[in-house]
Structures are given as structure tokens and as C-alpha cells.
Specification:
Layout: E1 11-16, H1 24-37, E2 41-46, H2 52-63, E3 68-73, H3 75-85, E4 93-98, H4 104-108, H5 115-124, E5 126-135, E6 138-140, E7 143-147, H6 148-154, H7 158-164, H8 167-179, E8 185-189, E9 192-196, E10 198-202, E11 206-207, E12 211-212, E13 224-229, H9 234-246, E14 255-260, E15 262-266, E16 270-273, E17 276-280, E18 283-296
Parallel strand pairs: 1-2, 1-3, 3-4
Antiparallel strand pairs: 5-6, 5-18, 7-10, 7-16, 8-9, 8-15, 10-13, 11-12, 13-14, 15-18, 16-17
Helix pairs in contact: 1-5, 2-3, 6-8
């Protein structure tokens, strides 16, 4: 990578998940070198088990020793890091180093899988407020899904994900497709309830990396876009997935799109939070009104939409 320049050198703690993606250590080394060339003071802590990223980020926030805590991994690492930074006064910014499978938040802010752009955002970028939702009290940054996609995510084991990458979700999706398009949960929005095959409460426009599911979602808004897929046949499920691939979910028959700050999910369906399996329903999802400063490239806007 060519050198970056930072007007004010930042103290950066990288929270590294070594199990995320392939060649992750080599790719992380490139980012560290680039940040150091920019004048950043860089430390790296490696996670060993689930929950470590939360503990590391929480301690970094309370220590006052860092300006930036950067999540180096996938969306699960982002979720844990956000959990550690959320709540109370927050003078520490969140950085993203995309090393995982989907990297939804990185795609959302225009970084994608480009490590140079990730380093630029951390070294010289500007903070953009990232709204933090809460599901059953736990923070999330991207989305909450129940029903079909929760069942898919729950069936993707770490080993399968390491071997197949994104293809693991396709394999599990075929299995869930064979189960059919019957109702798997019930959703309540603004007092109205309905059965659904699949519900996604979105804080981000993107889903699964490159797919645009919730075109009206905004990470700066304390309001969610809720996409409800009606129960139906296997053919209906194929239509839904086809519309998702084309970015036309909102125009698909059987799909309704809502905007809400509180959503109740009922039943016994599997639940996914920020792309990781998190048990089963019921779940209460609320817009917390909390924000974490998220570093984006300098050209990105840095103030909330009105």
C-alpha cells in the first residue's frame, strides 16, 4: 500500500479475530503497516473466544488510551466491538477492517473489501454517527432477522463457513428452501400483527454484503426499515430471493416494507443478529437513540440527515 498522511496521528487499537476470513493475518499486517506509515500509533489485540472483542473494546473505551478501536474481522467482530463501545459518553471512534465473509458495514460505508480504503478511513477519516439498535437489550449495528434467514444462519457451522465462505449460506439456504415457505414467526409493528416466513429489521441498506434489501435504511437514523416476507410456497420463496438479488424486494408481491422504532417478534423461529445465530424468538427490537462514531473516508458526510 502507498503511504497515507494523517493530520493528527491517531492512537488505534485493532481488535483482531484470527478466525475471520482467509489469509487474515497477512491482510491485517498490510493495514497495520499502512496505518503506521500514516503516523498512527497502532496496537493489536487478538481475540481467542466469543465475547473477547466486547471486553477489549470496553476496556479500551474506559482507559482513555485510544482514539479509535478498529474491528478487524467480519460482521460478528463488528457486533462485539460495537457492544463494547455502546452506552454512555463515547469519545472513541469505531474503525472497520473487513476480513470476514460478508462485511456488511464495510460495504455500507463504501469501503467494501478494500483494505487501503479501510486504512484511509481509520487514519484520516471523519466520524459518522452509527445508530445502535437493541434486541432483548443487546446492541446491534446491522440487522436482526427471524424465520427463514435465521434458520439459514443457525445452520451454518463455523467449520462449514471456513470451508465454503459465502457458499455455506447457499448450501443451507437450499435446505431451508426445501422445508417450504410456511409461516415461521409472527411480527408486531405499531400494534398490527401478522404471520411471516421471514422478517428483517434493518439498520443498514445492505444485507449479506452486496445485496440491497432495505433501500430506505440509514445508519444515522434512529428508525428501522422492517421487511416482512409473507408466508407462501417454495415458488414464492424463490421469487423473494430473486428480488433480493436484483435489489427489488420492495416491489415484490408478498413483501411489505415498514418503518418503526419498536418491533416485537414472536414464535420459536431461529434469530440472527448482525449475521450470527443468537438463539430463538421471542425478541423485542427497539431503536435505542444511542450512537457510536464510525470512521468513514474523508469524502463521506459526517452529520446526520435531518
Amino acid at each position: 500500500m502507498t503511504a497515507l498522511t494523517a493530520a493528527t496521528p491517531r492512537r488505534v487499537l485493532i481488535v483482531f479475530n484470527p478466525t475471520a476470513g482467509t489469509r487474515s493475518r497477512r491482510r491485517l499486517h498490510r493495514v497495520v503497516q499502512s496505518l503506521q506509515q500514516a503516523g498512527c500509533i497502532v496496537s493489536v489485540e487478538t481475540t481467542k473466544t466469543a465475547g473477547d472483542a466486547t471486553s477489549i473494546a470496553r476496556h479500551a473505551k474506559s482507559s482513555g488510551a485510544y482514539d479509535v478501536v478498529a474491528a478487524a474481522g467480519g460482521d460478528g467482530t463488528v457486533n462485539e466491538t460495537v457492544t463494547g463501545l455502546a452506552g454512555g459518553m463515547n469519545g472513541v471512534s469505531l474503525g472497520i477492517i473487513p476480513l470476514g465473509t460478508a462485511n456488511v458495514l464495510a460495504a455500507e460505508i463504501g469501503i467494501g473489501n478494500d483494505l487501503r480504503r479501510a486504512a484511509r478511513a481509520i487514519a484520516t477519516g471523519r466520524p459518522r454517527p452509527l445508530h445502535i439498535g437493541r434486541v432483548n437489550g443487546a446492541p446491534f449495528a446491522l440487522m436482526v432477522g427471524a424465520g427463514f434467514d435465521g434458520d439459514v444462519v443457525a445452520g451454518v457451522t463455523p467449520g462449514l463457513k471456513r470451508r465454503l465462505g459465502k457458499l455455506a449460506y447457499v448450501v443451507r439456504g437450499l435446505g431451508e428452501w426445501w422445508r417450504g415457505g410456511h409461516a415461521r414467526c409472527r411480527v408486531s409493528i405499531d400494534g398490527a400483527s401478522r404471520d411471516a416466513l421471514w422478517v428483517v429489521v434493518s439498520n443498514t441498506r445492505r444485507y449479506g454484503g452486496r445485496f440491497v434489501l432495505a433501500a430506505t435504511a440509514d445508519i444515522e437514523s434512529a428508525e428501522f426499515t422492517v421487511t416482512v416476507f409473507a408466508a407462501g410456497s417454495r415458488l414464492d420463496l424463490v421469487r423473494y430471493l430473486g428480488a433480493l438479488a436484483r435489489g427489488r424486494v420492495g416491489q415484490c408481491r408478498g413483501v411489505s416494507v415498514h418503518h418503526a422504532t419498536k418491533i416485537e417478534l414472536h414464535g420459536n423461529a431461529a434469530l440472527q443478529i448482525d449475521g450470527d445465530a443468537r438463539g430463538r424468538l421471542p425478541a423485542s427490537v427497539i431503536a435505542s437513540g444511542e450512537f457510536v462514531p464510525l470512521l468513514v473516508e474523508p469524502r463521506q458526510r459526517s452529520v446526520p440527515k435531518k
